[in-house]
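Please, structure for the following, as tokens.
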Amino acid sequence: MDESAVVPVIVQTLAASASKDARYLNFSLSFQRGLISSWIKENIKKKSCCFYEEDVSEGICKCGYPKVEHSDEAIKPERYVGEEWNAHRHIREKPTDAYGDVKFGGLGQKTGKYVRVSTDTPPESLYQLMTEHWKLRPPNLLISVTGGAKNFYIKGQLKDKFRRGLIKVAKTTGAWILTGGTHAGVMKHVGMAVRDYTLSNSSMEGQIVVIGVAAWGIVHERHALVHPEGRFPAFYSLDEAGQGRLSCLDINHSHFLLVDDGTHGHYGVEIELRARLEKLISQQPLGNRESGVTIPVVCVVLEGGPGTLNTIYNSMLNNTPCVVLEGSGRLADVIAHVASLPVSKVTLVLINQLMKRFFAQEYKTFSEVQIIEWTKKIQDIIRMAHLLTVFRIDEEKNSDVDVAILQALLKASRSQDSTGRQSWERQLELAVAWNRVDIAESEIFTEESQWTSSDLHPAMFLALVGDKPEFVRLLLENGVCVRQFLEHEDRLCELYAHLPACFFTRKLVKRVQGGRVRRGQPLPPSSKKISLIHVSEEVRHLLGSFTQHLYALPRQKATKDDVSLSLPSNGSVELPCSGEECTAETVCDPGRDLFLWAVVQNNRELAEIGWEQCRDCIAAALAASKILRKLAKESGEHDSEEAKDMREHADHYETQAIGVFSECHTWDPQRAQKLIIRISPSWGRCTCLWLALEADDKRFIAHSGVQALLTQIWCGELSVENQYWKILLCMIFFPLIYTGFLTFRRDEDIQREAEKTEQQRLALDSGCPKSKVKHRLRSSQKSALKPLNCGSRFMSFYNSPQVKFYWNIASYFGFLWLFAVVLMIDFQTFPSWRELLLYIWLGSLVCEEIRQLYHDFDGSGFRKKAKMYIKDVWNILDVVSIVLFISGLVCRLQGSSTVFYVGKILLCIDFIIFCLRLMAIFTISRTLGPKIIIVRRMMMDLFIFMFLLSIWVVAYGVAKQGILIQNEERLDWIIRGAVYEPYLIIFGNIPTNIDNTQFDLNSCSVNASDPMKPKCPVLNDENVPAFPEWLTIILLCIYLLFANILLLNLLIAILSYTFQEVQDNTDTIWKFQRYELIKEYHSRPALPPPFILISHLIIFIRGVLLRTPPQKHKHFRQEIEKTQDEELLSWEALMKDNYLSSTRQEEIQSTEHRIQDTAEKVGAMSELLERDQEMVSSTMAKRLSNLEDQVSESTKALRWIVDALKSQGYKSKLELPLLTAKSCDRDDGDSSGQETEDESPHTFARQLQYPGSNVKRFPVPEEKVSWEINFTPYRPPVYSQQESDNSSDAVLDKNRNPGGRTGIRGKGALKSLGPNQKIHPILTRWRDDEKATLEFLAVWKDAEKCWCLPGGQVKANEPLPKTLERILGKKLNERINSELQAAEQVYKGYVDDNRNTDNAWLEVTIVTLHLDKHSPVMSQINSILESTSSSLQPLQWQEVSSKTCARPYQREALCLIAQHHKTHF
């Protein structure tokens, strides 16, 4: 790792550690500033004058700076004595002295960063400074705003659209805005747009990055920014009144690059560095570094002058699209007016008219040559129509500037040299990076583009990783298949590797780094990479150990006893279930994988999209609720925003699960009940019911459908319709169950089946297809249910949880009655038969508690079961009561009478606990259950209140005891005086010992000698209490005020609040807790205590001695066949769609949505009315102007007619007026335009910059190309790359370019004057036998860095150039020369080349020869291609494509050959 890469890591590490402790914050900031300062001094320079030479003004150097700002060495230089001042020699670079933070006053963006840089600074250093040291995120788009540097007027509507659109595109795409940085002109408009956004957006996230690139020498008050060690911060004030010729920095920009060339007061010195910086940024990769797409750049033009034209021209030559705002003034309006015209119509006359119209007085300062040059540049700009976009405010399609900017980029992207599919994919990647769904819908996903799922996978990945849910939804709607997208495991691992910073990410990284390895299991070799094994382990931890792993683990072997697997590393991992077959098979469910990936990062919008893709949607929603609640709990910060958001998200998915289940239950209750007890393979083989219970989803459990299922399980095989008194009566007289007195569920099923069969028979009689009905009748008869026999009825009745509960209640009341009898009547020294029966009864209760502890009802494992057992308050009460009973029994069996009595006391206290246990039994009651919940909550509040009360009680009691009693040593009387008596005072027992009038000496003991009396207070000589009576009474009053009035009323308020709060949710909580009681009695043996010991003995024999596997509880977990499961999931997916549709419909019909929709419509209507008003006004103005012109011309014509009539045949004194203003200005240029409509003049030969030199051509507009047209100002430079004797005007005039003027005279880069003959033999072949791809033999040109057509210049009567002989060899060259006789000539004549001049040009002959795959020539060529030393220039077969050749005429020749062979180009 190089040093530049190490420094940011160090800074981030130190900054992170400093943020943990506020004491190191200042140290961290100063250290970071020190690192930035040292880096800037090493890499960033400034420029300063090192030779003072006075200019015309006194005391001013030729560099523009005054003498006082020069160093002593510059004022008296010894090295430059006698020299004249020269900028290249006398301006040198030094370490910069102006950098740091800048603070502005006033409204807007108050802080920014700045640096003074030299004009020769590498743009790579500037980009590194901005991204690594200024911590700017690399942009997804660079917007270069250019235009008028002076303040100008812009229409209000256009100004609003520009500001709104610029900020919108920067905010949505994450763009950088690049401007001139000063507080004037277009830069000021950009700054005002940023200011408006900053004032409306209070959050610091998403601040707009606006970088100002200004000249250092024109910045007003720049001395405030100078300090050798940097300023942190520098204070800068806006002083427009005193700036003079200089300019102030715009206070709303966020960053400044102040470009220094060593001079003062010179504008425009920053243009070159700004262009190089834009070019470098445009070469940086966009987003993912593996992608070939680079950061797009767009130029936005407002107003502007000649300098802006040069900027636009150079930008478009670099393939940078430009957006011109019509109506902003000057140059922008000139270009906008001619943009839609053909180039032949854009004449010098038209440009003169437009310049005169839009530049007003400034037009008079323009020379004729300048107008010619600008006309040429404007023609070239219009010729590059794919890079030019004009935003017109009066067009409906241009709704805003942001749309125009992005459409311009996509239009430029389509025109680049790439195939159609590559172009569409590049556009889509740009749209995803910008997060502009509207652009993608209107410009990319059109009828022209046909997308497959695999084509959209890269964009889908970018949208998911970039958190762009709207794009994810759009891609899914346009053909992305989630199954294909997540088909490979690597794609899902890559998604987890790109998780954003969140709590789950931290947990996952811990696990990957080995912080959470289970039972000493070693890390796999690829432990530093996130794999699905790590994800599966972490998700299983969040869901619970009762689930299986969602993703496959390494091969595992089952062990004997514990529910674990042996790994090759001798570690073990818990399995989810002990009663079921343990399997390592996992289910591939892409919808689940996508949903889970979004849930663990707590991304609500992406998770919602993923949930819509899930088939098992109810289980997915409940699993998400469980995961999010677990994450919120483990985050350790209960009140943090992240934890609150997770809990809200969990509640949302509980609501979603309830909504879908309600829809299912409405359509088919029985199917809905199957959904919540079916084993879900996608979610670790757990059920929806168990997920809801583990997630504490009370509202889901309280749903009527879930409660109906629980009620059905509670009743067992009995019908739910049976009344309680019937069941109780049958419990006493069991023969009634055989009489039909009770209804069983089997009877109801038989009745429903009979009704169904009867309906089928009626359908058969009514004329339905007999074959189908008979088939249904046969199948129903085969599967007909049979009534329960006597034994089954008996077992079903007594195995019903409801019946078990009633027997256990009766048993428990019997136990309490027996316990009470023993304590009050029959507690003898030796246990009686009643007491022995009590002990046996209690032993059965102890055995039942042990069975409950070890019985694995739901496959959670013993550890999980033990944790759940301990968490239950009623279980803790059971353990306490049993331990207390055993302790009392041990004491009771001792021989000592004292210990015997202690044992009885313990048993009496234990009786109270056993009575309290009745509350747990009656939680099943719909009447008592909610009240018991309220009592439990109030008890918690009461304990908190007792803590507050104890403070007052102890405070008052100790103070009172200390005042009244002197040195009391008896502990019992200390507690009575300090705690007991103050506590009784609360209930109205006012003490008498604090009042002297009620003092009685006989009621106390003076020396504390009587243990039955309290010690007397301090007495005086008259045996009267000596304590201050007034003080004790005041203390008592204060104590009563706070304890009786304040605290007791507080207790009442707390209990009232608790009652009101719990009362609203009591029914939900009761229904949730009802499950535990139902589950307990469902698994409980049928016999009640003490007869339950028989059942325990049978269970022990079966489980331990006979090794019989435990019985599965199918009522709570049901394994469904694969076919039925698929049908059930399809039905669930249909119900989910219905639910989502109804939810959206309700949202649309909601009042809030209607108000918002109305507001949007009103806003749109008002905007349309304003636009129509402006269009009408502008149209009327144009029509009035035309009408005035016509009236004026008509007046002139009428005058001429009158004069002609008066003269009676003689000419009028006035000449014939022209009918249009255009006709009077028409010159020979118009005719040239008409002549060149059929054949346009050469364009590449008129490029302003001559290739391979610094010579610029004289600008030649389109209509002045022909030699026949007079062009008086034409003064082209003379240039010849090789010295020539024949450079006189006479010699040059003999050789005239047949294509017309080129703007330069001489030979240029060509070898001779006149035509330079060149021949290109094009050898072609088919790549394969299918003839799908045509290839040609290409040669590599080092000078042009590309593959070109073979060939070169030839002399007269020379068939092939000598360069070709050097490449191919003599024999092959002769062979091809002979074959060329049969070759086909594609083109011969003049070609438009950028090397052409007025006196030298290229004439090319292009012939083509198609070679057979097995011809001798082909074999010789292939042997040459295999040899690397046979030629100086390498050869290669290249595809005939528009991307291959650099010369335009070569591309045209290949296009003709492709058409000849009928293949694509």
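The first helix runs from residue 3 to 20. The chain has a mean pLDDT of 79.
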